Amino acid sequence: MAKKALVILWLVVAVAWLGGVAGGTGRLKNYDIWKDLPSKTLMEMGGRFYSNVQPDSALVCYNIVANRYFTNPNGDELTLRMESSAMNQLGILYIYYFVDYEKAHKYLLQAEKIAKENRFTSILSSVYTNLGNIYIIDCSLTRNGELDHRTIEMHQKAFETALESNKPDKIIISAVNMAHLADDSITLQALRDDIKQFLNYQIPDSLRQYEYAKDYCRAALEVDKGNLEAALVYYNKTLQHVYHENARTCEIIRRGIMNTKARLLIRLDHDQEAVDIINSYIDQANKNDDHHGLFISYQALSEFYHNFKKDSIQGDRFELMALREKDIVLNQNKLLDAQKTEFLFQIDEINAEVQELSTRQRITKIIAWSIAALVLVVLTFLYLLWRKYKQEQEKNRKLYENNLALLAAEDERRQQIIEQQQAPKYQSHQVAEGEQSDLLHRILYVMETSEEIYDNDFSLERLTELVDATSKNYISQVLNGHYHQSFPNIVNEYRIREACRRINAPEQYGHLTVEGIAQSVGFGSYPNFVTNFKRFTGLTPSAYRKQSNAQSHADSAD
């Protein structure tokens, strides 16, 4: 429904004609003087220029303050509040005076970011209102007036944050905007509760805008109920209570209400009165070269003749005229005069310089922080390596001491076995298979005393011969029952223990490499030796030798 957004668009963008009548102030030359002024002073100056319809000077003031955020984004709360407020004001200026919606959107999104991060609810309410207005314009120009969810959502957010800020002026503005949007039953259904909440909200009656806002909201609710005559009464009361400190803005608001009233008159069959109102808009818009106003007015007449008079010829004629004005609006930037174009170009150059400075500062900080972070990472990495090395050394030392204790225990056990085995190493009689205990003692005696187990070709068959047994299978069963390991693993364990003893005896075996020691105890494969050594001791052979050498030096020092 095209009519839904037309009146809203009128209220939102009709202010743009002020830019045409205001002209340039020629104050950009003062930029070098103003750029060093305090932000508070610049915000006050910008406000005065805006109220006096001097948008160029206001733009310079707000632009200086906003740029300070990019060169120093870590200001205190008051500084951030002024910078986000300046960005919001820039959004307003670019919407209503310089007709650059892309720049307006950029500044408003940045203002929203700062305000949300710091909970500046009052500023956030204004930002949401202005973002909603941009979406209204977009809907009018690209969606044939059909509002989308973003528009309603933004104005609802504006009302919610206004309530949170407890600022009566913000609450009133956001409520009026919702009343503007509540143009049909579908939109009003989404906004009805918020409008009712506003009417129940306690605001001092001394605020002159309050009566105007209440009447506007009441009119919207009466339209929703179908009480068009009652709504018309409220619209007339609204016109009496319209107030704004800026006379031009006040007149624009009054025109918006009259536009809404005209559409209501059409529904009440007061066609001539409605058309007279629309024609008055057209005369005023032509006088002020206001293409937004012409677009809205021609669109309203097109809708009137198509939908109510069923006059397709007149409807098509005004629709064509509306499309022509729409094309002009969409290319509004191209219509700026040379002076204003030069002014905006200079503003863009200043912003580019600030952005370049900000970028350089940011890059310098990034490089400095990156170097510091890299140094920290390197130091941390070196510390972790050193710590890991010390932990590994301590772990290896404990493992070495444990292995020394095990070797001592093994040596003591070996001595006991030798003492218990009084018979000659080789006995002449055969050992019966049932004599397991005696057989086990003989096996242990051989394993502990025979040098043959360190021969590479030592086998279970040879062990069977050495203990004078009849069956190697029986020997294997006895070994497994005692050690719970296979014969090769048992032999490897004995060989590893002997390798440890030889590493700990540098006076006898110091001339041998670790690989040479591995071969001396019967390992033909060095990798196999390393694997078994680590499995039995928890250390690699080289780590074990390192601990042994350290222990030897410590003993020598003592």
Explained architecture:
By secondary structure, this protein is an all-alpha fold. It has three domains: 2-336, Tetratricopeptide repeat domain (Serine Threonine Protein Phosphatase 5, Tetratricopeptide repeat, Alpha Horseshoe), CATH 1.25.40.10; 421-484, no CATH class; 497-558, Orthogonal Bundle (Arc Repressor Mutant, subunit A), CATH 1.10.10. Helices cover 79% and strands 0% of the residues. It has helices at 2-13, 17-22, 31-34, 39-51, 55-71, 77-96, 101-118, 121-142, 149-165, 168-181, 185-200, 208-225, 228-241, 247-267, 271-287, 291-308, 312-330, 338-420, 436-449, 460-466, 472-483, 487-503, 506-509, 514-520, 526-537, 541-557. α14 runs antiparallel to α15.
- Give the proportion of residues in helices: over 70%
Q: With helices defined by DSSP (H or I, 4 residues minimum), what is the helix count?
A: 26
- Relative strand content: under 5%
The CATH superfamily of the largest domain is known as: Tetratricopeptide repeat domain
Q: Which class do the helix and strand fractions yield?
A: mainly alpha
List keywords for this structure.
single chain; 558 residues; mainly alpha; Serine Threonine Protein Phosphatase 5, Tetratricopeptide repeat; Arc Repressor Mutant, subunit A; 3 domains; 26 helices; disordered N terminus
